[in-house]
Hints:
Blueprint: H1 2-11, H2 13-38, E1 42-46, H3 51-64, E2 69-71, E3 75-79, H4 83-92, H5 117-137, E4 142-150, E5 165-172, H6 180-193, E6 202-206, E7 211-213, H7 219-250, E8 255-264, E9 268-297, E10 320-345, E11 349-359, E12 362-366, E13 369-373, H8 377-391, E14 400-405, H9 427-474, H10 496-507, H11 509-530, H12 532-546
Parallel strand pairs: 5-6, 11-14
Antiparallel strand pairs: 1-3, 2-3, 4-5, 6-7, 8-11, 9-10, 12-13
Amino acid sequence: MNAFLQSLRNLGPARLAAMVGVAIGMIGFIIFIAARVSSAPMELLYGDLEPSDAGHVAQRLDGLKIPYEVRSGNQIFVPADQVGKLRMQLAEQALPSAGGSVGYEIFDKSDPLGSTSFMQNLNLVRALEGELARSIKTVGNVKTARVHLVMPRREMFSREVQEPSASIILKMNGGGRLNAQQVSSIQHLVAAAVPRLQPTKISIVDDKGTLLARGFEDDKQLMNRNAEEMRISYEQRLARQIEDLLEKTVGFGKVRAEVRADIDFDQLVVNEEKYDPESQVVRSTRTITEDVQAQDQESMPVTVGQNLPDTNANIAGATKNQNKEARNDELVNYEISKKVTKQVRETGVVKRLSVAVLVDGVYNKDGDQRAYETRKQEEMDQIATLVRSAIGFDDKRGDQVDVVNMRFAEGDAEADKPLDLIFGFEQAQIMRMAEILVLSVVAILVILLVVRPLVTRAFETMPAAAGEAGRKLLAEPGMSPALSGPGMPPAPGVPMEEEMESLDELIDIDKVEGRVKASSIKKIGEIIEKHPEEALSIIRNWMYQEA
């Protein structure tokens, strides 16, 4: 132990400080690598948090003594193996609170006995607004939402009933936007949750100030909006059909189609009656027949003889007239064939279609380069024929189809790439393994290039220090120069020629042993007893030099 301390003293303060610094650095580096390797990777717990929610979540994690990292001010990362557990624990405490909006949990902490009816009604509206905001956030591209409800109270003995209304402001994710169907679904969602609220009484605005839905729409505005949505949907459907059809031939992402449709949404009611004179049918027949017979006798002068009995037969000179009359009337009613048509057109009629199709060329490999080549005119004509058939081309209504072959810009839309796996590992896992490998290589290089040379030099100084101690020991009076080790200067008073002879004699082991036994064995024993450490250093010096 004393020899080791003496060796450290011989190194000097500068070398000792360097060795201690390197040792501390290596220990810290090894601890860092061990902690880095053994620590669980950090995973996103919550992202896009409001500042208040982020503060509450961080405060709760501090209470649970769980390490976490806050990145970008609104993202909290925790160890990956605790994400699920922490989400359940925080959800039990209503964290995060959806940007400050409260739901029905507001009634969990309120005192119903100490609150007035006004406070109860106000809390009900707040809870309903918060729950609706949370539901709207589940719609795609919606980051946050705020709902404002106007629910008028009906006064006593009042005959007028005011309808409720609502306004909604949405904050979108990045450049995301809602389509007309999603906006309509939000309107109907809110309308179904509030009594007597109509979808037309709901206004929706996004964070850019764009009016997505206008409240208090009349029938005409609603009809115009539906017509515009129908036109856009029809155009998009045709464009998608054209792209899906051509991509099977020219390749994915190498065709773009745009469709413009002129649609007539005028409501038309047509009532039509047609008569066919060639097809007539007897509907009814009526026949009237009359036959009249009458006899008339001419009148005679009135005399006394006419009044006598039995005189009528003997009256002479009387004349008789007979009248006959016959009439036949026939009435026949005919019905002509009639066709009545009533046509109501409400869905709209396509008046004209304009289609523009852009097709990329063909790329041929020329070594490491890709050579662009335009498509043949025959192929372009075939593509145009397919497009006309797909859209139901009608030349009479003035439809137009243009198919153009142009080179697409690099980096245009590409197919969805599958998950990149290298030897079955994801990119993040490979990066972590590479990080560990680099740290290990750096540690090995530090050990080989820094620590090892310092330790080697330190041990090289130890034999030199031992040799110095041996020289001091041999310099004492009466000490024989035979005890000087190889490479050590002889004791004072010995000439150089005698030193060379002594070195030559040391080669003969028999002479050395005989001389030591005869003259110095007793003296060496006494010196070793008095100076055991110095003697040990001398022996070590011999061993190092022989090695």
